[in-house]
């Protein structure tokens, strides 16, 4: 891995290759939690008699813990440094996985999945700015290479789940497998020297204003992301509290970066990330429930599709550099939105071999969404630093907190409609999956218009970013 040292910030005693691989292995654990959870949803439903809406709430806990960790540690990154945040990530993974294995019902799954999500967010909060700091001149390229290991980890998790499911092995041993890479990166944390955050960058003052803003944002996120009567009883349910979160985030970033341009653009990127993440992860997390029947209800077959999709994503991200250079990051995002729309549209009516063809198109489409959005944030809002990257990533994951129960509700509703129309057996499940996909396709359609507008104004964004360099 000699190439890792190229373009990195020189600092005596720092093993850049080891730091990069530590980051990648921790991201593999994050991805495996995602893939194996997707693979065992049916087993959880059968064992604990959970509806798809309840499964959606279980899924949403991972996507709630993730943004909470990213907001907190994005805010405190320059104070705590990446090493301490990674120690907390390791503790969260260890605790969450063990509690999941011991869970005996819906509440236990909610709590354990939250801890796993918090650990996943801690990994992103620590490693995104660490990688960006090591590769200051090629941030987007190297963030894509780091994020190779999210789809790469999903491939590993999908294969593990497929093999163990077909061997008749239950969901608890599948969760236990993830303790192995968790232990590996845990040992690496305690045996690797991390770069120190320069004293000049320790700019966060934990005064009353900062603590109040953070507490208000976190409190609102928890209210929105958990099942409760308070939010459910509001007009528009989560819309007003979500707008308040965005307003408070604008104030916090205005206070931190000192420019309305940076604060406003960051809010825009957060909103966009919420749509790109739902297009990608909202489909993948439900792959077994959405595509299982279309693939003949063969055990683990949907995980093969997930492994194929994420394998393509891993390869695409690794070789992202030339494409980003040729099209510009925003051009890459526009291309991604078009292909994602086409893939989901075809998937919503596909059967047999067409499922695989549409999944390939979808994979190429969503491939660059996450890392390129993080890279675009670092490039166009440079004064936002680690906090800006964390907030954008948090927005993407928190969107899934909101949409996972809704997607589960779409499946339940489509199933009920299919049964009411006289369909039976497998035909009902096919209709349920296609009903959810027909709703998900609207997300990338919206993105096409947004990225087309940003592409036309990219020169202005680049010029204003140069003026905003810290």
Task: State the helix count.
Answer: 22
Instruction: Characterize the biggest β-sheet.
Output: none
Average residue pLDDT: 84
| Count of discrete structural domains | 1
Q: Give the SSE order as H and E letters.
A: HHHHHHHHHHHHHHHHHHHHHH
Low-confidence stretches: 1-10
Global morphology = globular
Task: Determine the fraction of residues in helical runs and give it as a percent range.
Answer: over 70%
Number of strands: 0
Structural class: mainly alpha
CATH class: Mainly Alpha
What's the CATH topology name?
Answer: Growth Hormone, Chain: A
What's the SSE blueprint?
Elements (H helix, E strand, L loop, with lengths): L15 H24 L1 H8 L3 H51 L3 H29 L4 H8 L2 H18 L4 H7 L1 H12 L17 H18 L3 H4 L6 H19 L2 H25 L2 H5 L9 H18 L1 H8 L1 H19 L5 H14 L2 H12 L4 H36 L5 H15 L1 H15 L1 H10 L3
Helix pairs in contact: 1-4, 1-6, 1-8, 3-4, 3-7, 3-8, 3-9, 3-19, 4-5, 4-19, 5-18, 6-7, 6-14, 9-11, 11-12, 12-18, 12-19, 12-21, 14-17, 15-16, 16-17, 16-18, 16-21, 18-19, 19-20
């Amino acid at each position: 891995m000699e190439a890792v040292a190229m373009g990195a910030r020189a600092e005596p005693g720092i093993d850049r290759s080891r730091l990069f691989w530590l980051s990648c292995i921790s991201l593999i654990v994050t991805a495996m939690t995602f893939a194996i959870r997707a693979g065992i949803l049916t087993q959880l439903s059968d064992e604990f008699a959970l509806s798809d809406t309840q499964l959606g709430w279980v899924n949403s806990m991972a996507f709630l813990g993730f943004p909470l960790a990213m907001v907190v540690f994005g805010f405190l990154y320059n104070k705590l440094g990446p090493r301490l945040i990674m120690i907390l990530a390791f503790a969260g993974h260890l605790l969450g996985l063990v509690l999941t294995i011991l869970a005996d019902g819906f509440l236990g799954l909610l709590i354990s999945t939250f801890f796993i999500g918090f650990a996943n967010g801690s990994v992103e909060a620590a490693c995104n700015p660490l990688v960006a700091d090591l590769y200051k001149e090629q941030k987007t390229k190297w963030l894509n290479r780091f994020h190779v290991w999210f789809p790469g980890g999903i491939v590993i998790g999908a294969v593990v789940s497929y093999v163990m499911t077909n061997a008749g092995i239950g969901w608890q041993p599948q969760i236990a497998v993830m303790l192995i890479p968790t232990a590996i990166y845990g040992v690496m944390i305690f045996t690797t020297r991390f770069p120190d955050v320069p004293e000049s960058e320790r700019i966060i003052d934990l005064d009353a204003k900062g603590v109040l803003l953070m507490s208000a944002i976190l409190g609102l996120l928890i209210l929105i992301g958990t099942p409760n009567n308070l939010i459910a009883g509001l007009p528009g349910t989560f819309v007003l509290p979500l707008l308040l979160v965005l307003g408070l985030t604008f104030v916090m970033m205005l206070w931190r970066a000192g420019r309305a341009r940076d604060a406003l653009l960051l809010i825009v990127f957060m909103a966009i990330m919420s749509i790109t993440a739902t297009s990608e992860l909202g489909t993948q997390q439900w792959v077994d429930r959405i595509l299982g029947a279309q693939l003949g209800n063969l055990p683990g077959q949907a995980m093969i599709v997930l492994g194929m999709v994420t394998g393509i994503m891993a390869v695409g991200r690794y070789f992202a550099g030339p494409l980003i250079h040729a099209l510009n990051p925003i051009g890459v995002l526009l291309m991604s939105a078009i292909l994602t729309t086409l893939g989901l549209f075809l998937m919503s009516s596909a059967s047999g071999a067409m499922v695989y063809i549409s999944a390939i198109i979808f994979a190429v489409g969503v491939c660059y969404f996450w890392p390129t959005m993080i890279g675009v944030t670092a490039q166009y809002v440079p004064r936002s630093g680690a906090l800006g990257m964390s907030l954008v990533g948090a927005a993407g994951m928190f969107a899934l907190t909101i949409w996972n129960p809704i997607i589960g509700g779409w499946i339940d509703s489509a199933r009920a409609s299919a049964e009411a129309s006289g369909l039976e057996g497998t035909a009902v499940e096919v209709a349920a999956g296609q009903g959810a996909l027909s709703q998900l396709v609207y997300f990338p359609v919206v993105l096409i218009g947004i990225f087309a507008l940003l592409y036309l104004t990219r020169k202005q964004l680049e010029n204003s970013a140069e003026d905003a360099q810290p």
